């Protein structure tokens, strides 16, 4: 997700000293850890010990019994001092052999917990959120998720420091340096994956990394870190609505046509869906125009008045916006203008995460939009209430700590750096290094925070890696959280199954 308060643009690199593994600490370090823990307890109440219960869910038409666990893993600095605690939620089907896969899932932000993939996409239980008609006051009731992936992989949902119940045990400046920048984020989260595998004796299992939004930025980098630094091979990577190339989508006033090209197909998809005409064939025509005549006419600019006129006319046709407005913009429609103007007659505004999920504009007569995003602000209540109720009441993991589904504090503290540290390089290296690794990148058509066409262009520029479809793209009806729509969630699972069943 990009250009929203919680889903920032590009991030910078700060190096974190590699953490000393918990199992490697000697007596002095262990004593120091107890002292650190004692100091931390004087300020923060201790988190509960790991808790596991047995549950069941009907998934894919079959009842599956599984163990649900909420647990914590420590984070240490290079001197063996405990500086943080990461809380995770795991779902494991007992009795599986060493070949049962395990998938580690991360959401984005930076500042988002893993609740969205957990209770929205692939976990065994779900709560409805993120689709048209959903409201913050809807009862946060968990029901079986028929599209859960638990019938083909165990699942571990990891909340980075500052999200969920995960927390730092050091001061503000040390926290920012250790956790709130690109490189330390990748290093300590990779180590958490490693520590979970060791703790649960799962190093022989096939391993997959899944990330949504900025989690999609994390996923290939974590996979490469595991593969080359921690000695853990990764069988597959799944990137959901990923934030892949900050440089390509930044600077809407820049000479590059890429920001306009990347946005246009998702705007057109929203218009086609409103008309009931959204099909892969219709979108193929939009993509062909975007790669061809749109880019050519855009670059011609005012040197060719006919090109500018063609551009405005065609963009108005594709987006459903007023042709006069589009003409004034020379065919360059930013997402903010689109989301407000396309719903202007209803005095509503659309969401950057799905342009067809809207809300009433509280200030419809204001020159500029003054309200928050309909999805971003609408998902906090159902996801937080459902997750806290599940953890504290159903699981019995009792804590008075606050659960952060989305942390503005983390997002605002994040070191944003430059847009040059895209994860595509690590993705290429990880795939090239392992001929058996598969990659699936998925998007919703209507998403303007991380538009699918950016990933389409990136994949088309990647090597073949020996065979076709080593890196595959799936696009489904819906937006950033397309999985809130049942049919899209099922199509996503069907595409992902090819990674797990090979």
Automatic annotation (TrEMBL):
Basic and acidic residues bias (residue ranges): 25-49
Gene Ontology terms, MF aspect: serine-type carboxypeptidase activity
Signal peptide region: 1-22
Region ranges (Disordered): 21-49
Originating organism: Sphingomonas pokkalii
Keyword Acetylation part of the UniProt annotation: no
Pfam families: Peptidase_S10 (PF00450)
Keyword Glycoprotein: yes
Record keywords, A-Z: Carboxypeptidase, Glycoprotein, Hydrolase, Protease, Signal
GO biological process, one term: proteolysis
Listed SUPFAM superfamilies: alpha/beta-Hydrolases
Protein name: Peptidase S10
Source lineage: Bacteria, Pseudomonadati, Pseudomonadota, Alphaproteobacteria, Sphingomonadales
